[in-house]
Write a structure and sequence with these properties.
This protein is an alpha+beta fold and about 600 residues long. α3 packs antiparallel against α14 (about 575-590), α7 (about 370-380) packs across α8 (about 400-420) and α12 (about 520-535) runs parallel beside α14. Helix content is about 30%, strand content about 20%.
């Protein structure tokens, strides 16, 4: 049986990450990058596809309790047993060269016999490595990958059933530390990591970073945990932020809506930048802005909706038939075919990000304005075409209303920049005309007078939760009755036990896929924003409270939530959900002090 998605916690080193279950098992780890093949893939298969469990001998159930160390990504997992209490501390220290997983076992009281079971499987659980002993290490090698395992003090290990096993006893105050290090198999032995110094340094680094957070309002712990998660999903060498740490966690148990989210989406750009700036993380905001500029460089017609961690453009999609999928929900997909889609909204999101960066006073990039003008010139020639929309539907292209609104945003932000800074060169009348034309068309073709709501696409009766962003981006003022009508219609038709779906999958095949999905958490946070902007702050805060209550015991959110079975769904942890949480907190409580 697969453990619930919310049973997992995240550790990481700003270049990749691992998921650790309440049972003490690391069931997902990609090395050396977020988008590399997994060496632990039990999350999408079973233990034979790779995992590493450290837990008390004979204890098959979950831990007694667990928590992150305050203001950090260092995880403590505690078991209280009949013979004593033990703690396992998990972390991935910021790497000098090679990635390390550090697991420190500490006796807290009595004596506890522990068992470690390590099954390394390279290439998403498909390759069993050759194991050998050397210089106090267990070394696993297969093709380009090698892993080095050691312990301090050294404990005896046994190779059995294509795994590495050990048993040892810790008493009160005793510690045994394990270090698992990846490096290219053709290179010399990697440098050794001091596990105890790594723990001290990691705590110092994380807590110094957390202390920069400006937010002091209600739910400060949840907001900080969201920001730490966002930082953990950042690929430090480039500043790119992945959408999630995983691939193919299903949006419906047993369904096929399983996607690879270990890449960087332009759709997240404005919201990500806004949250980082509001929280006071200017260095991260600047790094994200610079990643964005590098990624979109080139012909505007070649703009993609997503890129690799360093801005790579080729992300071919394929399936892994040997993995049955999480909770028997195949297929397991690697790569993402949606990279080839035309999504007009991303142009607006990129241009909006550039304006936000200028307003925040980030150090200017001389070529950013020229990039913006080239994007707008291309958009001028294609904005009247149908596209695949924000949600990357795999059905036919349509004239999605949200996409057109973001086209308006691109023109509007360019006009406003020219009005504010006479040093910028550009044809302001041209972009005003484009802005007005888009606004007029959306209001004429994307609004249902009979029902008093904007619709998902021109001429359709379906709705879309992305329409909640209309007042936020300034397309219409919050007081406009069309905004109020849209909010009410979206709540009524897309409501799901108090939360929101992205769009309806019940009566239409708009996305070209069978089955359904859960409530989309980012959209539910957008509803809280929209309610607040339209003067319904108490309702907004009540919704926000319910959404924060969906976080798991260590403060993490997946992409979606099933309110019927009360479980998280989709890739995990999801940057979009945590951006939504932090952004809504700044909107609702940003001027309040705690208490």
């Amino acid at each position: 049986m697969h453990r619930p998605i919310e049973d997992y916690a995240l550790i990481g080193d700003h270049q990749t990450s691992a998921l650790v279950s309440r049972h003490g098992s690391i069931d997902w780890l990609c090395l050396p990058r977020f988008d590399s093949p997994a060496c632990f893939a039990a999350l999408l298969g079973d233990e034979e596809n790779g995992h590493w469990r450290i837990a008390p001998k004979g204890e098959d159930g979950p831990c007694t309790r667990r928590a992150y160390r305050p203001r950090s990504l260092v995880l403590d997992t505690v078991w209280e047993t009949a013979t004593g209490t033990v703690r396992v501390t998990d972390l991935m220290p910021q790497r000098d060269r090679c990635p390390d997983v550090v697991r420190i076992v500490e006796g807290l009281s009595g004596e506890v016999t522990m068992r470690s079971t390590l099954r390394l499987r390279f290439d998403y659980g498909s390759v069993i490595p050759w194991m050998r002993r050397t210089d106090g290490h267990r070394v696993a090698v297969a093709g380009p990958d090698s892993m080095w395992l050691r312990s301090e003090p050294e404990v005896q290990t046994l190779g059995k059933d294509f795994g590495t096993h050990s048993e040892f006893t810790v008493g009160e105050g005793e510690k045994v530390a394990f270090v698992l290090t990846w490096h290219p198999s053709h290179e010399p032995r990697p440098p050794q990591c001091d596990p105890h110094q790594a723990l001290a340094d990691s705590l110092e680094d994380w807590q110094a970073w957390a202390d920069q957070c400006r937010y002091k309002g209600p739910h400060a712990d949840a907001v900080l945990r969201s920001l730490i998660t966002l930082k953990a999903l950042t690929y430090a060498p480039t500043g790119g932020i992945v959408a999630a740490a995983t691939t193919s966690l299903p949006e419906e148990i047993g369904g096929v809506r399983n996607w690879d989210y270990r890449y960087c989406w332009l759709r997240d750009s404005t919201l990500t930048l806004g949250v980082l700036l509001a929280a006071g993380y200017l260095d991260e905001a600047e790094a994200w802005r610079d990643w964005l500029l590098r990624a979109v460089a080139g012909s505007p017609g070649d703009l993609q909706i997503m890129y690799g961690l360093a801005g790579e453009r080729r992300i071919p999609e394929y399936e892994l038939p040997w993995l049955p999928g999480y909770a028997d929900s195949p297929p397991v997909r690697i790569g993402n075919e949606a990279v080839q889609q035309l999504q007009l909204d991303v142009y607006g999101e990129v241009v909006d990000s550039f304006m936000l960066a200028r307003q925040a006073g980030l150090p200017p990039k001389p070529h950013a304005w020229q990039v913006q003008l080239r994007l707008l010139e291309f958009l001028e020639s294609v904005w009247q075409e149908p596209d695949s929309g924000l949600w990357e539907v795999r059905g036919p292209r349509r004239h999605f209303v949200h996409s057109k609104i973001m086209v308006w945003v691109a023109a509007d932000r360019t006009v406003r920049a020219l009005e504010a800074d006479p040093r910028l060169r550009g044809d302001i009348n041209r972009w005003r005309a484009m802005r007005d034309a888009v606004h007029r068309e959306v209001c004429e073709r994307g609004y249902d007078e009979e029902r008093g709501t904007f619709t998902q696409s021109y001429g359709s009766r379906e709705l879309d939760a992305a329409l909640l962003l209309i007042p936020r981006v300034g397309f219409l003022p919050p007081q406009d009755p069309r905004v109020a009508g849209t909010i009410e219609a979206v709540r009524k038709e897309l409501g799901h036990n108090g939360f929101l779906r992205r769009y309806s999958t019940d009566q239409t095949n708009v996305d070209g896929l069978p089955g359904s999905e859960g409530a989309f958490l980012a959209c539910s946070f957008w509803l809280a924003d929209a309610l607040h902007l339209t003067g319904r702050t108490q309702e907004a805060r009540e919704l926000f409270e319910r959404l924060v209550g969906l976080c798991n015991d260590v403060g993490l959110l997946a992409e979606e939530y099933d309110p019927v079975h009360r479980r998280q769904l989709g890739n995990f942890p999801q940057a979009f959900s945590h951006i939504g949480l932090a952004g809504a907190a700044f909107t609702l409580f940003g001027t309040e002090e705690a208490g």
